[in-house]
Amino acid sequence: MLRRVQEFEAVDQIINQNEAARQVREQQQDIPICTVDDLRSADGVILALRRATAI
Would you place residue 22 in the very low, low, confident or very high pLDDT band (cuts 50, 70, 90)? Predict the structure, then answer.
């Protein structure tokens, strides 16, 4: 099961200013946002952290 997180408002603003990031978000729009119940039922969790920078 693949889920994504709800981005913080500040991250959404950075994404909106970057064409490549907007395209990635659009490609991932059909992936459901993770809920607490999803985390409870998961056998494991993988987190990918990245540093957001405005260009």
Answer: very high
